[in-house]
Amino acid sequence: MSAAPGQTVGPFFHLGLPYEKGNELVPPGRAGAIRFHGRVLDGSGVPVPDAMIEIWQADPDGKILQQPGSLRRDGWTFTGFGRAATDADGHYWFSTLTPGPTEPGKPAFFAIAVFARGLLDRLFTRAYLPAPTDLDALLESVAEDRRGTLITAADDSGVVFDIHLQGPHETVFLSFPRHRGIWA
Amino acid sequence: MTTTQADIDREISDGQADGPHEIQPRLDYPPYRSSILRHPTKALHPIDPEGVELWSPCFGHSDVAEAEADLTIQHAGEPQGSRIVVAGRVLDGDGRPVPHQLVEIWQANAAGRYAHLRDQHPAPLDPNFTGQGRVLTDADGYYRFQTIQPGPYPWRNHLNAWRPAHIHFSLFGTDFTQRLITQMYFPGDPLFALDPIFQSVTDPKAREMLIARYDHDLTSPEYSLGYRWDIVLTGSHRTPLDTEEPS
């Protein structure tokens, strides 16, 4: 069956999608909490103030969670899912835990979905932890000069990940086999 | 120089003639002006999903109250406009229902105005209508919303630009790669041919997948009209050999 087409989230998605503590997978400041943050930028390097980022990640032990509670956080349950709209400066942030590798020897990453007014369909990418020692299939297959767009940088509070929709630093965005009608 | 509807019509028609008809929207689609600086220019990088990408976040009854599926009962009074039911089924690319998964919607009110600060066009706000809803699909992938028929509304893509009436839908599948946000339209809308967002999907059959159909079985006597809209996601990448529980 062919899939329904995507359509842009438009300018009014704040009405429907962001929710209270959507970006707080753990309460900020809790032991072990890191800030995962960055900016979304357009092809002129101008911040995008009406974008939305979703993250989906394993817990620090690399366990993939099937735990409800993302929409109504109880402050204790880690679900691995978060959603944040960008602010007027195109900045987004999450308070979360550092993901662990889901398989031994694999570099840990956050799975990312990007939405914005002006973006006709969602984009997927990955944000790897800083300075991965092991490369996986994606990092190996991306040209070295673009690999950096997939890797977060450490800062005082956690990790930074800027997303460039276009331009010289354009982020590597992903296509999965079944998006192309291929059963891998 | 002001861009007119005739200019946009010409660009839409050129886009139809230019290259194959595509099932998914073209990200590089200049008739939708806001897309010009916001689409990737490099090809998407093909890769097999791994780890968390093979799973979706899980939502439960602690996340979504049953009343959130009825957008007409969120305030003290009755909203203005025609009541409608929008119901259907979420299926994956292999035709399997997607059970117990989150569906979120947002929409304009009957006058075509969003309860959002950025919408300042001079149509009335409705104090009894916010236009936001959530529901979990049932065990067979079915969802159902009670809401108000949204109105078409103007936007500033070009002079005298109007969007066809629509409801925004946000969906999850069983793996994260199936994540979809789209818009549901109503049958026979005269604005379809004029709308660059709808026309960014260059395959006419694929555009039809975004249009609900009137369903008299979903219509309630002396109460509300019913529309049926089934939503097909892309296929899951998890094979039957994968365990039922993530590691």
Automatic annotation (TrEMBL), chain A:
UniProt cross-references to InterPro entries, sorted A to Z? Intradiol_dOase_C, Intradiol_dOase_core, Intradiol_RC_Dioxygenase, Protocat_dOase_a
Specify whether Oxidoreductase is a keyword of the entry: yes
Gene3D superfamilies from the xrefs?
A: Aromatic compound dioxygenase (2.60.130.10)
Q: Which domain of life is it from?
A: Bacteria
Q: Which residues form the Intradiol ring-cleavage dioxygenases domain?
A: 33-103
Membrane-crossing residues? Answer: none
Any single GO molecular-function term of the entry would be: protocatechuate 3,4-dioxygenase activity
Q: Which UniProt keywords apply?
A: Dioxygenase, Oxidoreductase
Protein family according to the UniProt entry: Belongs to the intradiol ring-cleavage dioxygenase family.
What is the name listed in the Swiss-Prot or TrEMBL entry for this protein?
Answer: Protocatechuate 3,4-dioxygenase subunit alpha
Native source organism of the sequence: Paractinoplanes tereljensis
Q: Lineage, please?
A: Bacteria, Bacillati, Actinomycetota, Actinomycetes, Micromonosporales
Gene label: pcaG
Automatic annotation (TrEMBL), chain B:
Write out the entry's keywords from A to Z.
Dioxygenase, Oxidoreductase
Top-level taxonomic group? Bacteria
Q: Which parts of the sequence belong to the Intradiol ring-cleavage dioxygenases domain?
A: 86-114
Gene Ontology molecular function: any one: protocatechuate 3,4-dioxygenase activity
Region Disordered: start-end pairs: 1-31
Q: Where is the composition biased (Basic and acidic residues)?
A: 7-25
Q: Name one GO biological process term.
A: 3,4-dihydroxybenzoate catabolic process
* PROSITE patterns assigned to the protein according to its UniProt record, in alphabetical order: INTRADIOL_DIOXYGENAS (PS00083)
| Coiled-coil features, chain-numbered ranges | none
Q: Which PANTHER family match?
A: DIOXYGENASE, PUTATIVE (AFU_ORTHOLOGUE AFUA_2G02910)-RELATED, INTRADIOL RING-CLEAVAGE DIOXYGENASES DOMAIN-CONTAINING PROTEIN
Q: Which family does it belong to?
A: Belongs to the intradiol ring-cleavage dioxygenase family.
- What is the name of the protein in this document? Protocatechuate 3,4-dioxygenase subunit beta
Coding gene?
pcaH
